[in-house]
Amino acid sequence: MTMKTFGAIGVLLVLLAVQASGDNVTSPGLPIVMWHGMGDTCCFPFSLGGFKMFLEAELGVYVKSLEIGNSIVTDYKSGYLIHPNRQVEDVCNQLNGDPQLANGYNAIGFSQGGQFLRAIAQRCPTPRMNNLITLGGQHQGVFGLPDCPSISSKTCEYFRQLLNYAAYASWVQNYLVQATYWHDPLNERAYKESSTFLADINNERTVNETYIENLQQLNKFVMVKFTKDKIVQPIESQWFGYYKPGQDRETQKLEESELFLKNRLGLQEMQQRNKLVFLECPGNHLQFTKDWFKQNIYPFL
After folding, report:
1. End-to-end C-alpha distance for the chain, whole angstroms
2. Where in the sequence numbering do the catalytic residues fall?
3. Coil, strand or helix: which one is 246?
4. Is 104 helix (H, G, I), strand (E, B) or coil?
5. Could you write out the DSSP letters of every residue in 19-52?
């Protein structure tokens, strides 16, 4: 299997593209909060750390790149081994304690950081998130881990086996982050009953009206799908689509899903109010250019 990094590789491509850019935006907007993906950290200079400096220089705004724990090592491990519920609680406290975010912020989630930031929008309405931008997020989960980013192929294969055979065991849900958004279309009942993160934020067990109210406070919810993605399966999850229940070949759009038709998250109202934005980016997971980012994402920042 080819090894790839959810966050670092795609962002590195952006950094290489933007180094020669001298174009600056002179009118500052809201601060930006970023959440990295699996296999990345907040602050590597060749990854989100460099991207943070780029956005600050280009847009003239305060940028907070979220760090889980008190070290880069802990932050890296969090992408695999710290339950999303714990991470979301930690981040909520960070945001509430940052005076520079008191008047609101825009959010950018890279890969799994996308659904984690959506959980922030739903569970942590203060300070207010203005626009949520998810780059390759997995809003309906994943069923497959073809290019698992990890330190070794042996570790990657171990994760893959856990997900394939025991994703809904309680100890795996508590131990492995990716199990918390593993969505088995062949066993929807097990997913809804046992998923300790995604099934909750998608209101698939009970409907939490607060989640709906908070999500609808967004000005725009921007979802970016990478058209040649080799990591997220199925790629439609990046636009809130997924496999049709009972099989893992045919996919359906958000509008065809039970989640939308039963309006479990209030996405029907958001669509009617033009709050949902679906963007495509050619290329593999998190591979985008400076020009694409500036043309497509800057309007929401």
Report:
1. 37
2. 111, 229, 285
3. coil
4. coil
5. TT------S--S-EEEE--TT--S--TTTHHHHH
